[in-house]
Amino acid sequence: MTSIRAGVALAVGVALCGCQTTERVVPGSKTTMRHAWESERESREDVLKRRTEERPDDPKVWFDLADYYETGQQFEAAVAAYERFHALVKDAERRDGIRYTAGPYHLGRAYARARAYREAVACLREVLKLQPKDDAVAGSLNPHFREAHYLLGGIYYENRQWKPAREHFVSFRELGGEPLRVEPWLAKIDEVEWTGTIRARRTDRIEAASRAPAPAPASAPAPASAPAGPAGE
Fold first, then answer.
1. How buried is residue 118: exposed, middle or buried, by Cβ count under 10 Å (0-12/13-18/19+)?
2. Distance between CA atoms of 156 and 148, rounded to whole angstroms?
3. Contact at 8 Å (CB) between 92 and 98?
4. Coil, helix or strand at residue 79
5. What is the pTM of this model?
6. CA angle (191, 119, 53) in 5-degree steps
7. For the segment 35-93, what is each residue's pLDDT rounded down to a tens digit?
8. What are the chain's domains?
């Protein structure tokens, strides 16, 4: 059976390593030098981009660059880097026979933050296709499943699609997500749906009244008969 992983070997470790710095001792000296991205001559972005040029087939360096852009709210640039990361994850899946959620999840999140909702939904649904049917297993196996539900809930909410928004927020909670993250959204959906129900009932009453036949006009009284005259007239 094909294994499912969050992408620890490929990417989740990246989230832990991407912001670390290492030190090295200059030979013959006690002086230490920080990692290259802290160099005064080279920005962190320059270093990360150079790494992608030096190791274009390494998903880790593409994740680092994408994460840098996403953290800096440069979402279009983040999407481009995550697309490359996702493609490399797909290559690893074909090679290793292991399904990873990191590629579609991170790309879907970047699309959502860039407000490219159609593309975001497609990626996040790709994640949920791998979700085990047992909520307890899914919740403990991989945080990407519940976070994909959370993002989808937000997308549908923003597009005023209340039913799927509610379903995904509830799924997020059932998979162990923090209830406080979704309770305000669910309360707002309840309010909107309640208000919509009241308005719909009022509209139904108005429409029913407009379709009712008009009452028939009251009949005019019959004219009074002329009094009979004297006999012989």
1. exposed
2. 12
3. yes
4. helix
5. 0.69
6. 135
7. 544 454 579 999 999 999 999 999 999 999 999 999 999 999 999 999 999 999 999 99
8. 3-23+32-132+139-208 (1.25.40.10)
